[in-house]
Amino acid sequence: MTESEHSESGTVRRSMRIAAVGDLHVTKDSVGLLRPYFAQLDGRADALLLCGDLTDYGLPEEAVILAKELGGVKIPILAVLAITTSNRAIRRRSRRSSAPPASSARR
What we know:
By secondary structure, this protein is of the alpha/beta class.
């Protein structure tokens, strides 16, 4: 937390600096692009809020890249996923689970 103020009633009020970014749409081509921006947060924000479509297609590979880009962030991170990202991942998983196993496919 940053600054503290004492109110007339004697209670302490504290302020928090929140950095927020949304709709990053990380792809396989995003390696190294976001790291310099996240590095600027040190000493400037108390928490990072990630909102919206964090990855472009909801692919695990994109999530790994995002995690690496965030690797140097030393403050707490809160992420709120967009419904489109969540829906893409759900549809992809359901297609995989409804497909017949490779061993039972016709030849």
